[in-house]
Amino acid sequence: MNLKLWISCGVAALATSAAAQDSNALAVDGEALLTEAAAPLHMENVDTIYSGWRFRASETQALQSDDFDNPGMIFVDQAIDLWAKVDGSEGKSCASCHENVEDFAGLRPTLPRVEDGELVTMENIINECRTERMGAEPWKWSKGNMTAMTALIGLQSRGMPVNVAIDGDAAPFWEKGKELYYTRVGQLDMACSNCHEDNYGTMIRADHLSQGQINGFPTYRLKNAKLNSSHGRFKGCMKNIRATPFKEGGEEFKALELYLASRGEGLAVETPSVRN
Amino acid sequence: MKCVFRTAIVAALAANPGFADGVKPVDVAFVEGAVEASLTGVAGDAAAGREVFADRKQGNCLACHANTDWSEQSFHGEVGPTMDGVADRWSEAELRAIVANSKMVFEGTIMPAFYIDAGYTRALEKFEGKSILSAQQVEDVVAYLITLKEE
Fold first, then answer.
1. At what angle do helices B135-145 and B92-101 cross, to 10 degrees?
2. Is the backbone peptide bond immediately before B25 cis, with ω within 30 degrees of 0?
């Protein structure tokens, strides 16, 4: 019995090493982006962290290396129009209060963050402007206008290293996210860690498992030809293991977003990334 | 009408020489990583088990296990060991245990338990209280795995 167990583990280990992340380097329009870094100290089971880009096929990778080829940029262009569009009872647009979207360089890598005891994501900040300052309707978490705007604002930080606060006020949210990451759910009874920590680098049917990093979100997926929020991706992974997903924008997914962001500390922001 | 329908089902169950729907998941007897008795008393159908192995909505075993016997399909997973020669490594009773509930054999494994209907949380409503495979499907898969010999 024991011997058999060892043999099967050996075979599994071999399969793992055969198909790890590749060694390609990502540059967008000539500017190098860091897709690999030493794992932050709080990660106990991983030494090196890699962007999901390193696990994609070379054709998919190529789409992200040139902004003209990146289909996500079409939505960024749409967001530039939205930026200047007046909406709501106050007769204002984003541009009425924020002169240049470039001023948001440096914001993406620090989100989510705690404000007045609440964990806030970029979607929360955008909707707060819409409801409190513009008198406009909030945008839905994963709808096109929201993902386009989070892409435009995220793009201003492209290349900057992810750097979220996880101590102080943020600690309880981070702990909650960590617990969710390691909790098995669904009829298939799996945790995020089972796939993205224990088995990254292996094929799961036609998919090459990555570390499930979120430094490239929102991400353009060839599968649905639109920008996808990180919460949308969490939801998809939960449904795949036949689990009832948490709510997009809810406390659980926000905590998970903070925890995942912290697992990517040091990776470059790649927004908008391209995935299959 | 309803009554007649019920009677028909009961008759069909009674006609089954085994245990109707099979042994309940909680009653499956694991002894040192093996389940000796068939879950249904009906011999497994290896051809049906082969289909369950690859079907994404059923076993989806191919998602994690490469298997030369399924070479007509191009995407084989690498999360678990290859199934080539699996019957040389494990007995029928051990394979039944691994498929029914791999956690009874491999501690902390990622491999789902295919014949449990409780003990997991937050399942999508349509899967709540159900096992991934039926007792007979487990028997079919075991009958199929037993054919995968190399020696």
1. 130
2. no
Q: At what angle do helices A251-262 and A230-240 cross, to 10 degrees?
A: 100
> Has A9 been annotated as catalytic?
no
pLDDT < 50 stretches in chain B: 1-17
Tell if the CB–CB gap between B81 and A187 is shorter than 8 Å.
no
> Tell me: the pLDDT tens digits for A16-28?
344 689 999 999 9
Q: Chain B residue closest to A10 (CA)?
A: B81
Report the complex ipTM: 0.91
Which residues of B sit within 8 Å Cβ distance of A? 32-33, 56, 60, 62-64, 66, 75-82, 89-90, 106, 110, 112-113, 119-125, 127-128, 130, 132
Chain B contact for A242 (CB, 8 A cutoff): yes
User: Is residue A162 a contact partner of residue A267, using CB atoms and an 8 Å limit?
Assistant: yes
pLDDT of residue A30: 87
Domain with B136 in it: 21-145
Residue B131 contacts residue B138 (beta carbons within 8 Å): no
Half-sphere exposure at residue A268, Cβ-oriented, CA atoms within 13 angstroms: 20
Of A11, A188, A195, the CB nearest to B81: A11
Number of structural domains found in chain A:
2
Residues of the domain holding A86 = 73-155
Same domain for A131 and A150 = yes
Closest CA to A155 of A85, A75, A234, A94: A75
State whether A184 and A249 are in the same domain: yes
